Amino acid sequence: MRPMDNAPDPLAYIAVNKARWDERAPAHAASADYGVERFRADPTHLSDVVRFDRSRLGALTGLRGVHLQCHIGTDTLSLARLGARMSGLDFSAESLRQARALAGDAVDFHESDVYAALDVLEPGGYDLVYTGIGALCWLPSITRWAAVVAGLLRPGGRLFLRETHPLLWALDEKATEPVLRYPYFEHAEPLVFEEYDTYVATDATFTHGGSHTWNHGLGEIVTALLAEGLRLVRLDEHDSVPWNALPGQMTESADGEWRLTEAPERLAASYTLVAVRD
Known about the structure:
It is built from 10 helices and 11 strands. By secondary structure, the protein is of the alpha/beta class. A 7-stranded mixed beta sheet has the order 3-2-1-4-5-11-8, with helices on both faces. Strands 6-7 form a two-stranded antiparallel sheet. Strands 9-10 form a two-stranded antiparallel ribbon. GO terms for molecular function: methyltransferase activity.
């Protein structure tokens, strides 16, 4: 991705990003990369992202959970299939239309910006708040996000987060080897991009190319959660991500994850974080 020279007002980010996700949701649902047909054919099928963390998730049966920024709901439905009573929240109406078509009555979906989640979901009503790969980069403030997470969790409830590592987001995806290009720490102005592709295999063409994104350092994320009274119980860094984040630099492994082709131990590409509200 290439940032534009003149970034517009960050307050415009919701409309710009929503248009992008609304347009891409049908293509994502139709792409084999999301495996929607596998979900329909096999009632035990789980998304690759959830399956990656299955041992870390522990027992979910009977837990009330909410998946923030759930997109088309494949991870949300996977958590429901593991026994949780799941809700999903996303700001994209078209993403939620695809999610409801996939999950049916198994998941309760809500349309909202994540910062307004407490207006549409029950404060303090959840045992589990889940956020998956590629979500936090769409939010300008990690402290506001952490406040929402804390507000949704009941005492003893936990946040489960698997995310792209901020080190990976800081790398130049156009380079032939790992090179730092973008901010690692949270920044006031968004990175503004204009690109008309997507991260799944599809023949669809798109007219909405704009996106506004931010990075958040790992320390900033942890500190924001601690400030809201959550207790960190697990933080695992991984050398892989579930998509080809650095084309020409990564190779897909047998587990469906992508790692640096040369010396993958050089890069923390994603992480899993678990925190509990005492």
